[in-house]
Specification:
The complex is a heterodimer of chains A (463) and B (189).
Chain A lengths: L14 H33 L11 H33 L6 H23 L14 H23 L8 H21 L8 H34 L6 H16 L13 H13 L1 H15 L3 H5 L2 H24 L1 H7 L4 H30 L5 H34 L4 H36 L16
Helix pairs in contact in A: 1-2, 1-3, 1-15, 2-3, 2-4, 2-6, 2-13, 3-4, 4-5, 5-6, 6-7, 6-9, 6-13, 7-9, 8-11, 9-11, 11-13, 13-14, 14-15
Chain B lengths: L6 H27 L13 H12 L48 H4 L3 H9 L17 E4 L8 E2 L11 E4 L1 H12 L8
The chains are: A mainly alpha (463), B mainly alpha (189).
Chain lengths: 463, 189
């Protein structure tokens, strides 16, 4: 087996890869700030609905802007930046066709800018979550994805190792799955009437589970062993997680439409395999924690490792919560409520964003030789951790209160009144998260490779 | 050939496996359910209602309002359980996933008043004090004429600039007609 710790590299390796990786990070950081701003405005408006009354900032228009930007902007850019680096490192070659990946980056940026413009103007495919964007923008994004994928696949094809390291399974899988998924989601032939909803459940769920999840796991299968200086606990568990994730995650999208006219067998299948999801989730979680076992003194001194392990914990929590939410009995209380919003933030923030930050802080200073001060990283961590926890707790309680009010048969406005104080706390948490993102952006500045400096070559340990 | 050493094989299995699973769980069922015919008596929307629906989609109303009643006691206030035939003529269908506001599948019967709907669209707080719904004042005109043409909206003082009369635009009227048209068709026994 190849291990993540091999690091003999060709001479002059990866200056281009580093610059490209960082270009993705910079854009990811910018989209994080933009997406956060839209999230904050939305949060404020839910408590003060007469704030910023303007068509371009109306709640129904900015909500899909927030989700599109943080999903297709921040999370995707940051993860692709990391993944480009990981495929190159673990294949022990320079990144192949970096021009293609760079082209993909610009196509994505063009797609996101046009996304903000069109959604602000209300040009939208309607409330079809994460596919609100009209097809020309989706096409732009899809071509960008294909270009990035070509670069990644070509890199693995040119590897100088015999084995394909497990990180690359997840990363290449993510690229080919997302390209397929996007195509199926936008082809119109089977989407009249309720056909649209069958595809909607499948798409909105699989986009998370077969794009973000495998990119994060692929990154962590490289980053965690690298940061701990020891091999992954079990390579086989990583392979098991890969196949079961593909099998189970693909089949469970219909659990977003429980008790709907979507065929009952489809809903039941989705609930059943939602339970099956515990296999890849705990295989991955267990693998990462067992890798960290015995290294707790090192973890305690390292905020990058704490970021990663909070992310792993977020993965386990969010996924287990998702399984429980799929049950019909739980659905009665939680569906349609803000509990779902808490769940999605636990997944995309507690899991995905924390893992990204940990991997960035853990890997980047080693290769650029530059890093932010430990105090700055800890400030980012505590603002993000406390703010995110407050946000998720408050909005989840809001969801429980809404559900309880509906089940009690109160008038609808009673559920709004019950949730309102929690919307205020959620906003407070949101401002803390936003502050942490500003700190992150500054930290990114302190990590970037110095241009034209020979020091960016090879691996360095920060002073 | 080994998946551990052959990237073509690995990609092929991952891609092929996913495509087969997606076909079974999404594409084929979608082809199947899109054939379900509309409910008896369900007619295509007239022009004003269709324009109103486009505005509903444009403003993202479906972000907070479902049009999807589950056949459960908790959903009883919203009407009968939704069936596939309710959505057969809809593009896109607006079932939704969040109820920050109430379900609207049958709101045309629950709240038929044109005046209430117009005031509510101008500023929801004028009729529901603790509502968190956005107002849509850009679909209304402020007239200083005491007797302007068009539908005058009796917005209470304090919710509009002093000394003006609020007049609904054609767009606001379309939106209200759409909301009034949201009435669940009775199902054939």
């Amino acid at each position: 087996m190849s291990t993540a710790n091999d690091r003999e590299l060709p001479a002059g390796h990866e200056i281009d890869t580093q610059r490209l990786m960082f270009a993705f990070f910079w854009w990811g950081g910018i989209w994080l700030l933009v997406g956060t701003l839209y999230g904050l405005i939305a949060a404020v408006k839910l408590y003060w609905p007469d704030a910023f009354v303007h068509p371009l900032l109306s709640f129904g228009r900015i909500r899909p802007i927030h989700t599109s930007i943080v999903l297709f902007g921040w999370s995707s850019f940051a993860l692709v930046g990391l993944a480009l680096f990981v495929v190159s490192r673990t294949s022990k070659v320079n990144l192949a066709l970096p021009q293609a990946a760079r082209l993909g980056m610009w196509l994505w940026n063009a797609a996101l800018v046009t996304a903000i413009v069109t959604l602000s103007l209300g040009i939208s495919r309607g409330p079809q979550e994460y596919r609100e964007l009209i097809w020309p923008i989706a096409l732009l994004y899809g071509v960008g994805l294909a270009a990035i994928g070509v670069s990644m696949i070509a890199t693995v094809a040119r590897r100088t190792t015999s084995e394909i390291y497990v990180s690359n399974w997840y990363i290449l899988g993510a690229v080919c799955w997302m390209a397929t998924l996007f195509t199926i989601a936008y082809l119109p032939f089977y989407q009249d009437g309720l056909g649209n909803i069958v595809i909607q459940g499948y798409y909105m769920h699989t986009a998370v589970g077969l794009w973000f999840t495998p990119l994060v796991l692929g990154t962590l299968y490289y980053a965690l062993p690298r940061m701990l200086g020891k091999p992954i606990y079990s390579y086989a568990l990583g392979v098991l997680g890969f196949w079961t994730n593909m099998l189970f995650y693909t089949l469970i999208g219909a659990h977003h439409f429980i008790f709907s006219p979507v065929p009952w067998w489809l809903q039941t299948t989705a609930i059943l395999f939602s339970v099956g999801m515990m296999v890849p989730v705990w295989a991955g979680t267990g693998n990462f924690f067992l890798t960290a076992r015995g290294s707790w003194p090192a973890v305690r001194r390292s905020y990058p490792l704490i970021f990663v392990l909070v992310g792993v914990w977020g993965y386990a929590l969010a996924s287990t919560q998702g399984t429980i939410e799929a049950f019909r009995s739980a659905n009665i209380y939680w569906h349609f409520t803000n509990f779902t919003v808490g769940h999605s933030h636990l997944a995309m923030y507690g899991f995905v964003a924390f893992a990204i930050w940990g991997a960035m802080y853990g890997l980047v200073p080693r290769i650029t030789g530059r890093g932010p001060s430990p105090a700055a990283i800890s400030l980012h961590f505590w603002l993000a951790f406390l703010g995110g926890s407050l946000y998720i707790t408050a909005i989840s309680i809001a969801g429980v209160l809404q559900g309880a009010s509906w089940v009690a048969g109160e008038s609808f406005i009673a559920s709004v009144d019950a949730a309102a104080p929690m919307w205020l706390w959620r906003t407070v948490g949101g401002f803390m998260m936003a502050a942490s993102h500003v700190v992150f952006f500054i930290n990114l500045w302190h990590m970037q490779p110095l241009t034209d400096s020979p020091a960016v070559m090879g691996e360095r340990v920060p002073a | 050939m080994s998946l551990h050493t052959d990237h073509r094989a690995l990609l092929g299995v991952a891609f092929g496996g996913f495509l087969i699973l997606s076909t079974i769980i999404a594409v084929l069922p979608a082809f199947e359910v899109e054939k379900i015919p509309p409910n008896q008596g369900l007619a295509a929307a007239n022009a004003a209602v269709a324009r109103g629906r486009a505005l509903y989609v444009k403003e993202g109303c479906g972000v907070c309002h479902t049009q999807f009643v589950r056949n459960l006691p908790v959903d009883a206030p919203y009407g009968r359980g939704s069936v596939a035939g309710d959505y057969a003529l809809e593009d896109p269908p607006l079932l939704g996933t969040q109820r920050t506001g109430p379900d609207l599948a049958n709101v045309g019967r629950r709240q038929p008043s044109e005046t209430w709907n117009l005031i509510h669209l101008y500023n929801p707080r004028a009729v529901v004090p603790t509502s968190v719904m956005p107002g849509y004042p850009w679909y209304f005109e402020e007239s200083i004429d005491a007797d302007p043409d068009g539908t005058i909206v009796p917005v209470p003082d304090g919710f509009k600039p002093a000394g003006v009369t609020i007049v609904a635009t054609e767009a606001a009227m379309d939106l209200v007609r759409y909301l009034q048209s949201l009435q669940q068709a009775e199902l054939a026994p």
